[in-house]
Amino acid sequence: MASILRTRAAPFTRSLISANRPGVSNFSRILTRKYTSANPGTGETPPDPSTKSSTNILALVGIGAIVVVGGAFYAFSSNDTTAKSTIQAAKVATNFVPSKTDYQKVYNKIASLLDASEYDDGSYAPVLIRLAWHASGTYDEKTNTGGSNYATMRFAPESLHGANNGLVVARNLMEQVKKEFPWISYGDLWTLAGVAAIQEMQGPKIPWRPGRIDGHEKDVTPDGRLPDAAQGQKHIRDIFYRMGFNDQEIVALIGAHAVGRCHPDRSGFEGPWTFSPTTFTNHFYKLLLEEKWVWRKWSGPKQLEDKKTKSLMMLPADYALVEDKSFKSYVKKYADDENVFFSDFSKAFSKLLELGVPSSQWVTPEPWNMKTLDEQADK
Ligand code: HEM
């Protein structure tokens, strides 16, 4: 276990604090570093609102025009393939074409919001990864429905699906970003948040590109498309094969459980998977293989705990990865070599975030590598 604590996570951390939390009181939490809210890359700070009165009048006139144009656009194009929100139509109407620099500013804003000492283990990053994944993982290859394109989790009943419990926290946090950058679509915003969350937790670079559009209530996906944590390998394959993933990609993706935790008031399950829930590592696989996992005796849903410290957890669905021969071979591979895990995770997560988006919508033929705050500060 000590070996796991001594690997990659340690050099990046500024502070180790312990927290008193049911089920996790015996270990120290590793927190990511604090960031500033300015844009370190450009040195820019948000504009001073007091200098904006004349711009505001222009903006009001502009918004009026936008609403008219947007409404007309909507009226003529509200079907599955051409749905566009008013804001997106406005973007076209005002000739505002965001550049990579604009998206980097959005990334920076998201990154500045991740660190939050009052929340969970000190970071919103894990719940943002879960938002990006649940927004994309509804994809059905056969019917070409679901996926990240329309950001339908904004609407009931999808927002209320059991699997999405607690994601209102992440969606509300992203509203702060949306206010500052109203031109970005929700699908782009949520997926970029997943990218920023992984990269800022010292994870791999996730190639990403914009182009998703906001859909409508009629586009919401049916319940049951996301995995049920109480089930095993057959269910996992049914769910992920439906999206177009293979065994190797499935195992790589679930390695995201290196970060974050389960919340009794969201999924019913409780506790983190690793000792460093805010640093992206391959520890999920190492712990799966190295620890002895036993069923936890408690009043909640069936979950496993590590026999040694009883402070970590595995879901039945996580444990299925070592009960299945094919899955287990990849668990071993990723436990042995974090670089291989990072490389495979990056490809699979990038693919996940693009599910359901027609290629004609991408603004660039090749995805971009967004810069981390550290990379921009180093310049
Ligand atoms: C068989 C597949 C999967 C199952 C059954 C599953 C299930 C769960 C459950 C039950 C939770 C706890 C939610 C809560 O109580 O807050 C959770 C959290 C999480 N999941 Fe998964 N998951 C799966 C795959 C994935 C994938 C593919 C990703 C990303 C690539 C992912 C990323 C996360 C993250 C980061 C959290 C922590 C969220 C937080 O700390 O708030 N999961 N997952």
Q: Could you walk me through the main structural features you see in this protein, from its secondary elements to its overall organization?
A:
It is a single chain. The chain has helices spanning 2-6, 9-12, 53-77, 86-93, 100-113, 125-136, 167-180, 186-200, 233-243, 247-254, 283-290, 316-323, 325-336, 338-354, 373-378; strands spanning 15-18, 28-31, 261-262, 271-272, 293-295, 304-306, 313-314. By secondary structure, the chain is mainly alpha-helical. It has two domains: 55-93; 98-378, Peroxidase, domain 1, CATH 1.10.520.10. Strands 5-6-7 form a three-stranded antiparallel beta sheet. It has a two-stranded antiparallel ribbon with strand order 1-2. A two-stranded antiparallel sheet has the order 3-4. The protein is globular and about 60 Å long. Mean pLDDT is 83; it is low at 5-83. The structure holds protoporphyrin IX containing FE. Protoporphyrin IX containing FE is lined by residues 126-127, 129-130, 133, 166, 227, 229, 236, 253-254, 256-257, 259-263, 266-267, 269, 315, 317, 349. One of its GO terms (biological process) is hydrogen peroxide catabolic process.
